[in-house]
Specification:
This protein is α/β, with parallel strands linked by helices.
Amino acid sequence: MNQALSVDTADIVESDRDSELPALLEDIYQHYNHDFRQYAAASLTRRINWALRKLKMADIAQLRDYIVQAPQNFSTLLQYITVPVSAMFRDPAYFLALRQHVVPVLKTYSSPKIWVAGCCTGEEAYSIAIVLREEGLLERSVIYATDINPAALEQAARGIFRNDQIRAYTENYQRAGGKTAFSDYYHAAYDNAVLDKELRKNIIFAEHSLTTDSVFSEMQLISCRNVLIYFKRELQSATFDLFHESLCRRGFLGLGARETLDFSPRAHQFDNCVKSLRIYQKNNESLIVNPVEGLRRFQPARN
């Protein structure tokens, strides 16, 4: 057995984390323009530990050498440090609230634009598409579903999910106020469920980083759930700046159950729409802030 990997398989010791982890994050930023430097240290450390185990590496120094050798090596690491976790109609009450409180306002726009930021493998984007379809709004809406992980985006664009997930998705859909049978939105193919291609027509899957990219359109709704919990406070504030700039007048912002605007400098610029479910609405107050820099070309993921 490799002596370096025999004890807790390459867990990051404190001295290694303090010296090598910042250097690794700087390498990632300099070589690939992905900025993890303001991510919460505890969760990021767990993910790097997992990557070291899976890649059978002794320490972060070895991982640094690995990622700078080739872009595909960084793509491999990215699968471990982004860790996609999602489900269709996750937290059903949130989607029921969108249906009841947000959709009626979206209907007043000729072509509503919705941004699902940190879309992972697409479950939330498709859930919103189903809500919009049932409310007669999908055909004139555009859903931008973005993430930093190209592999996750490619999986999302396929719209294929495991059959063993469908029971839970069906229960979530029903609790979210679904108006028909969830089975109307997919067909079985071997051990998978393939979503109706009509749901995909109005979704644009694309790469976008909340840490380095900028505004690309004016939105009526931004849904960014269970992403900001991995950010340090400074990065959370910068992300709220980005969202504020991206939203139209009286646009809506939805966050995850453990996320809040309450301690942000932007808090006074949003009203509580459904406070218990972290749905906010931009108000008319203004605050001058520095513009977000570093816009990259907005490119859809290849199918």
